[in-house]
């Protein structure tokens, strides 16, 4: 059969990823959306769209009845579930089959069996797949679990039998506290998965998390496409993934691959699946679980194999063979993926929601960005806060790592807190650079303190200079006939501009003094001033020479230039000038008239209560023996004139305020 129209029962970046391959294959796509996703990026890119319910997942993306109705109404002959939501829901797969709809995934039987950790482990033991010693029996009373824990030996892992992702999971080092941990894990498992059944496993200390990508078809073919190392995790959630595993040998890859194929064959697996293993320090490996769907981190496998995994999924779902033999599979180069999340690393990685005001995306050689939002879109509190996956490919691991750091360093997202700085820092840690990182990496490197990216004095100097230059640029654009060479000029001695920022609860005063057109003396509090030479500057980028080095920066000022987001290669931070003295551009139409440059205020030609219209002459400023007229931008009445004619004023000093007429 041929799939002609595909409904994607998902959202965000994975929906867009599926749309991309469907378009390549000439398959029409149908996007579904909730109230929160009415204008989402995946909705804008699909051929057709269908509303499926309110924002809460239970009312929309988990609503099987509504999704099947949208499938029927749209005339779709297949459903791709993506990952998450209903992708590993056997009842959903059964409902698709019953409705005569092609489910792009494995059979309901495989989903159900592998979705239950206890049943899956028993099946793997029967199939000869190496498993961690433990208990996966049906007797779930406290006494039985405590007795089995003693037999397995401590430390021990308690896991929810019906799910994953770290929910319903606890590690216990000794018998004391076991009962409380079981009750907590059971309660969490019931809330997350609707089942309180648990399994026990001997804890493998400081392992690697290595998973093998498998593919099966209806003709009984099963192959493996190499492995991925997903050891960098926070609370059992993957953060950085790569392919291949840095310490993998050819012999070990073959052993793990064959074990993964045996796991798939045990459940007559069809489609894309991932068999996850724990790789111990002695290079022994143990079955962890099988994900019966496309993984978030599938792009790293695509880059090193050259295969389109979504295309293979669609081909297999249409009744074709995988089309690739085990001998055809080769791994070339190295790929590393990071997950860019809207979250606050300084605040226990709590999700951050809101509008993406501006996003200068990671870019560069061999960089792939799978994104779910773009500038102007919103990150909702209803769904996973992942913004994008950023993947770098190189001929070797170090090249891929450096390319990824470079791409992330040259990116900026304003409007939300993100884990950008944390990811850059993690990629630079020696344990990661050397390939020694295990699942203990984040705990070892960051402990319980999380990660904070606090601007230092150099960062504050650069932020203030960006605000100062931005105000200059705005003043130049807002003033008629002002030569840019005049913007730092004064008829008296050089004037200083002052910025005051609140950083970690204390005020930091930054003073800027122009020396010549492109050179500035900048100091923070009582520290010695530093000389900064601006090599280039435009509305969002600045390149400077400081401390014997060149620095490339990204920034975004607020409309009134009172605040600014600055991005350096390792930090992104927000500052707000609370001095009330400078760093403020003339906001078009707000009625605040400011000096566009340093100079002598020769004349004020209007008085308080005077009515003015756009283009009307308000004042005259002298700079470098030239007179510059300051003109009204709006219609209104002059409400205040704090400046005085005949005085020397600094750039951005308020000259007058105009109260606009009501529209």
TrEMBL record:
Residue span, Lipoyl-binding domain: 582-659
Phosphoprotein recorded as keyword: no
Matches recorded under SUPFAM superfamilies: Glutathione synthetase ATP-binding domain-like (SSF56059), PreATP-grasp domain (SSF52440), Rudiment single hybrid motif (SSF51246), Single hybrid motif (SSF51230)
Ranges where the ATP-grasp domain occurs: 121-318
GO molecular function, one term: ligase activity
Cofactors named for this entry: biotin
Pfam family, one: CPSase_L_D2
Family matches, as InterPro entries: ATP-grasp, BC-like_N, Biotin_BS, Biotin_carboxylase_complex, Biotin_carboxylation_dom, Biotin_COase_C, Biotin_lipoyl, CPAse_ATP-bd
Biotin carboxylation domain location: 2-447
The keyword ATP-binding is assigned to this record: yes
Keywords: ATP-binding, Biotin, Ligase, Nucleotide-binding
Protein name as it appears in the record: 3-methylcrotonyl-CoA carboxylase
Gene source species: marine metagenome
